[in-house]
Inverse folding.
């Protein structure tokens, strides 16, 4: 999307430059043309012109609307990762970027990606505000403690591209840099094969789910002390206080870290909070696992939420 973004910037700069030059030149020209040439010269009153007023209101209005519509359409496309995007988890931490690929291979401060494939980054922070910025792709997104954010891009040319932290985050902020290595799909597969994987994010999440004893309360059916997580992701949940929320990444994150924040209707808030016990990387693995849980039976009845 970099080309389109540059075109929009070019358009805005061209419009601004045109009017800045036009107005400045006319100011100079009129100053000379209408200067006082004899002592008896006196200015004449001008009582305005409706046609002129309308013209110089209407033209900038249309230009501003073009910029707005163009910018908004680009923004929405940038904010909506394609459904077929490959997901990579990235965690910012003073002062490094930890990257986890779908099949479980991990790396630090480097991110290998295949070209011609949309990549969706799910971004978290272990400590303070960071910002994952890849200027060559014209994308950047804040890594916010306590929240998951996303950005996406599609690399088109193999090569190495800078990653910068674009949010001041402490002493070594300027050293929190890395690179994207865009490779052909074949090279990417070869690179993955050479990496050490400890299982996919979802498999690691499943292991954690058992290690943390989540599975003793969250059973596939509705018989557990906690609500079943099967078929939960992406659906609407009714809370004890009557609110309805969508079970997205951030809902799952909050419910693991601070289980009392949103208690599901019909259940008691007896789950311990895992804040401080689960790292951001583990959290992403747990979410990856919960996303894979399909509904236990085809049509759960209303009471079985
Ligand atoms: Cu991380 Cu600046």
């Amino acid at each position: 999307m970099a080309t389109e973004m540059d075109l929009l910037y070019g358009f805005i700069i061209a419009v601004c430059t045109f009017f800045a030059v036009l107005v400045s030149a006319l100011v100079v020209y009129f100053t000379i043309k209408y200067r006082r040439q004899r002592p008896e010269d006196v200015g004449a009153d001008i009582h305005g012109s409706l046609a002129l007023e309308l013209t110089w209101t209407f033209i900038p209005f249309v230009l501003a609307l073009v910029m707005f519509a163009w910018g908004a359409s680009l923004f929405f496309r940038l904010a909506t990762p394609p459904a077929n995007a490959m997901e990579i988890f990235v965690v910012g931490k003073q002062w490094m970027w930890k990257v986890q690929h779908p099949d479980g291979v991990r790396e630090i401060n480097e991110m290998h990606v295949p070209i011609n494939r949309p990549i969706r980054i799910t971004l978290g922070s272990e400590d303070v505000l960071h910002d994952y910025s890849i200027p060559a792709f014209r994308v950047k997104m804040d890594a916010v403690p306590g929240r998951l954010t996303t950005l996406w891009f599609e690399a088109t040319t193999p090569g190495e591209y800078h990653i910068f932290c674009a949010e001041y985050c402490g002493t070594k902020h300027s050293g929190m840099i890395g690179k994207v290595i865009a490779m052909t799909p074949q090279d990417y597969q070869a690179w993955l094969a050479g990496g050490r994987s400890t299982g996919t994010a979802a498999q690691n999440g499943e292991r954690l789910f058992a290690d943390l004893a989540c599975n003793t309360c969250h059973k596939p059916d509705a018989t557990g002390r906690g609500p079943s997580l099967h078929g939960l992701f992406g659906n609407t949940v009714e809370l004890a206080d009557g609110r309805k929320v969508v079970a997205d990444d951030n809902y799952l994150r909050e419910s693991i870290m601070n289980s009392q924040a949103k208690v599901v209707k019909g259940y008691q808030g007896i789950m311990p909070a895992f804040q401080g016990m689960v790292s951001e990387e583990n959290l992403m693995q747990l979410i990856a696992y919960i996303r894979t849980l399909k509904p236990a039976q085809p049509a759960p009845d209303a009471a079985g939420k």
Q: What stands out?
A: The radius of gyration is 28 Å. The mean pLDDT is 88. The chain has six helices and twelve strands.
